[in-house]
Design a protein that fits this description.
The protein is mainly alpha-helical. The protein has nine helices and no strands.
Length: about 260
């Protein structure tokens, strides 16, 4: 039980730790460092999608023979479509942008920034929840160590992400305390999303391959739609490429060592 609780809370702890940087970082985060960290987060999420979600999904569907790829394809596309719909229906504002996306609203800039990050963090929580569900189901080939691996990997990339969120909040005129709170709460959706997926998947173990690939699709949407474009724009985009390589390698190692 303790391992399950830890896997649920570890990613959130990473966000809180990163958001706390606002108390001892005097200046705005360097654009070069921000590009590197965005690339790093992309690498972690892509590696987690492949090693911890898509490959287990196909392995669980192996008895179906050549048709084993169908649940993975269906779940992956549904996950991409789900995040696309949320992106279209939720008013939000990305960092370093003054043009809100989604339906028009009268929400404050701070609120829309928080919503954007919440959309980003939701698939990460879903990924942890579905891997935990697979570990608890038994016979899925997924271990609790695998769930811990993806939780630790996401937590590591959440540390710089928390700082990337809280620092612009302070620069926008919010107090350090409020910036920390907003940055921290942006990660609260992760344990909530993980717990909901964990509870629902217990009712439908046969669809586990669909759920695993669904979470992968949702994470990949965030990477392709948000992280990589933000990391690649302007000069020194090679730093984001280096960050991606480091993040991907770290997540792959965690999956092998802990999984």
């Amino acid at each position: 039980m303790g391992g399950i609780v830890a896997a649920l809370l570890i990613p959130f702890a990473g966000t809180v730790l990163g958001a706390a940087f606002v108390f001892f970082m005097k200046k705005e985060m360097s654009p070069l460092l921000q590009k590197t960290l965005l690339g790093f987060a992309s690498g972690v999420m892509v590696a987690a999608s492949v090693w911890s979600l898509l490959i287990p999904a196909m392995e669980m569907s192996a008895p179906a023979g050549p048709m084993q790829v169908i649940p993975t394809i269906a779940g992956f596309l549904l996950g991409m479509g789900f995040l696309l719909a949320l992106d279209e229906w939720t008013p939000h504002l990305h960092l370093d942008s003054d043009a809100p996306e989604g339906p028009s609203s009268h929400l404050s800039k701070t609120t829309m920034l928080a919503l954007a990050v919440t959309l980003h963090n939701l698939p990460e929580g879903m990924a942890v929840g579905v891997v935990l569900a697979g570990a608890l189901a038994g016979g899925s080939g997924i271990s609790l160590a695998s769930a811990m691996a993806i939780a630790v990997g996401i937590a590591i990339q959440n540390v710089p992400e928390g700082a990337i969120i809280s620092m612009p909040m302070k620069e926008a005129g919010n107090s350090k305390g409020k910036s920390f709170l907003i940055g921290s709460l942006s990660g609260a959706v992760e344990p909530i999303g993980a717990l909901l997926v964990l509870l629902l998947s217990g009712l439908a173990v046969p669809v586990m391959p669909y759920l695993l690939s669904f979470a992968a699709g949702a994470m990949m949407y965030v990477v392709v739609e948000e992280l990589i474009p933000e990391a690649s724009q302007g000069r020194h985009s090679n730093l984001s490429t280096i960050g991606f390589a480091l993040g991907f390698t770290l997540m792959m190692v965690l999956d092998v060592v802990l999984g």
